[in-house]
Amino acid sequence: MQNIINRFSWDDLKVVLAVGEHGNLSRASEALDMNHSTLFRRLGAIESVLGLSLFLRRRSQYVPTVPGAELISLAHRVEDDVNGVLRSITEEVRGFSGVIRITTSDALLYDYLVPLIATFTDKNPKISFVVSVGNESANLSEGQADIAFRATYNVPEHLSGRKVGSATWAVYGSRTKWTGKHAEMAQLGELEWSSFSHSLSKLKAFTWVEENIAPEKVRFRGNSILSVAAAVAGGIGVGLLPCMHGDEQENLVRISPVFAEIKEDLWFLAHPDVRKSAKVREFMNHCIQYLTDERENIFGIVP
């Protein structure tokens, strides 16, 4: 086996890939800028070294065998890795440039991402951003976005990322109605509420309201954190909101203790292939460092 490994090279893998992609020696030899007869001998020598037939010869068509298909798949992966490393090296030498696409919620954009992007673009003026706001989960595997910034307690297995903090929740009321007042837990069921629509049913806050507040007490439903916060600030009952948002709003006041059972972890997520991009890695590292340095101010806790 070691003898085979020593005699097999990346150039051999490129030969197998070219024949597999083009399906015959004529087109493969053109792609490789190699003489037809030379390519024929090279392929024969590779199969001899491996002791395997990599292609079935059918007239002018070369059809991969199972071992051939496995080597072609390996060649694609190696090619992708090499190209990814070369792009990263080029970006790091010439400076980061291009577009980073992010999907997030309105509240996370408002409370976190805007300052993160602003501080990053100050240092990287050739980077631009496209941000999609919504509460649905973007399919990072299909390239709908490079990065997802989400509050979640259930990270998909196919994604990689970093947890950067936790969002705690409490009940808020409008400052005009609730300044200097406090709502006891026993009172909450007697109050009118603003809450979330079923599109946000995955939120623990949605579940808590559904289980503890009578439906007729819910006078407003919104499909985003900002819409519910606006309703509460406008005097439409009280509502469960993330403290990171509610504490910063002039028209809101916290009227309950933090709910220990309602907490969402904050994650920067990306598909493993996307994280090979130098600019994406650089931005995620910037965000993580910024949130770590500002943890006390942002999350209200000491690092």
Automatic annotation (TrEMBL):
<dbReference type="Pfam" id="PF03466">
    <property type="entry name" value="LysR_substrate"/>
</dbReference>
<dbReference type="GO" id="GO:0003700">
    <property type="term" value="F:DNA-binding transcription factor activity"/>
</dbReference>
<keyword id="KW-0805">Transcription regulation</keyword>
<dbReference type="InterPro" id="IPR036388">
    <property type="entry name" value="WH-like_DNA-bd_sf"/>
</dbReference>
<dbReference type="GO" id="GO:0006351">
    <property type="term" value="P:DNA-templated transcription"/>
</dbReference>
<dbReference type="GO" id="GO:0043565">
    <property type="term" value="F:sequence-specific DNA binding"/>
</dbReference>
<comment type="similarity">
    <text>Belongs to the LysR transcriptional regulatory family.</text>
</comment>
<keyword id="KW-0238">DNA-binding</keyword>
<dbReference type="InterPro" id="IPR005119">
    <property type="entry name" value="LysR_subst-bd"/>
</dbReference>
<dbReference type="Pfam" id="PF00126">
    <property type="entry name" value="HTH_1"/>
</dbReference>
<dbReference type="InterPro" id="IPR058163">
    <property type="entry name" value="LysR-type_TF_proteobact-type"/>
</dbReference>
<keyword id="KW-0804">Transcription</keyword>
<feature type="domain" description="HTH lysR-type">
    <location>
        <begin position="8"/>
        <end position="65"/>
    </location>
</feature>
<dbReference type="InterPro" id="IPR036390">
    <property type="entry name" value="WH_DNA-bd_sf"/>
</dbReference>
<protein>
    <submittedName>
        <fullName>LysR family transcriptional regulator</fullName>
    </submittedName>
</protein>
<dbReference type="InterPro" id="IPR000847">
    <property type="entry name" value="LysR_HTH_N"/>
</dbReference>
